[in-house]
Design brief:
7-stranded mixed β-sheet; Rossmann fold; 2 domains; two-stranded antiparallel ribbon; alpha/beta; elongated; 11 helices
Length: 276
Amino acid sequence: MSEARAVLAEATARLARAGIGNAAGDALALMAHVLEVPRHALRDALARPLPPEAAARFQAAVDARLDRQPVSQILGFRDFWKHRFRVTRDTLDPRPETETLVAAALELPWRTVLDLGTGTGAILLSVLAERPGARGLGVDLSKAALEVARGNAAMLGIGADFRHSDWFSAVEGRFDLIVSNPPYIAADEMSGLSPEVRDWEPRGALTDEGDGLGAYRAIAAGAVAHLAPGGWLAVEIGPTQGAAVSALFERQGLQEIAIRPDLDGRDRVVLSRRTA
C-alpha cells in the first residue's frame, strides 16, 4: 500500500496536467471524502498507507474529475449559506454568488415565500431556516430536482412544500416574497461555459435557449398576480442583465426596483415590489 500523501501528490499532478484550475484543492477534497475525515484532520491520515478500498474509490473520484465532473457532484453535496445540500446531475450546483439572493431576501419582511425553479431547494430552505414560523413553496419543472429538494428539506428538518410547476402554472394564492434563480445564460453563450457547467449541469437550469431573458419575462408576467400587496420579488441575474430585467419588472407595474451586487461587485440580484 502506498502512503496516502504520495497518492494525493500524484493525483494533484494528474489534475494539474489536465488543466484543472484548483487541482490541489480538488484532490484534497476528494481524498477527505474517500477517507471520511474533515480536511483539518487529513494530516495524520495522509501519513498512513491508503487502504486498497479507499485507493480504488479515490482513483474513481479522480477519474471523474478528469472527465470534468464537478467536485460537488462527485462528493454528492455542496455547502451553501449555513447548510449542506445534496446535489445531483438533475440540479444546478448552488453557487456562492447565489448567497447574495439569500441575504437580500432575509432583509425583507415576509412570512410566506415562493421559490420558482427551486432545484436543490437551497434558496428556499436557507431562508426558511432563518425565519421560524414562515411558510414556503418551491416549484420546479424537473420532477427529479423536486425529489432532491424534498430530500434536502427532510435531511435538514426544514418544513417546506414542493410542487411540479412550469413557473406559475400550478401555483395558487399570493406570497409576501417570490425568489428565483432562473436560467439566464443566452443560448449563444453556452459554448463558452466551462465543461463542468456545460456538460454536467442540467441545461434547462442554465439557459432558456434564447436571449437569456425568457425566464424573467415569464416571472414578470405572473408576479403581480401572485404577490400580496406590498410583496417583494427578488431574482438572481447575470452580471450584465440588471437594466433589462429591471425594465421588464417596471413594465409590469412593479416598483422600488433596486440592483444588489455580489461580493465581487458584479450585479447579481434585482429587487422589486408590488406596492398596490
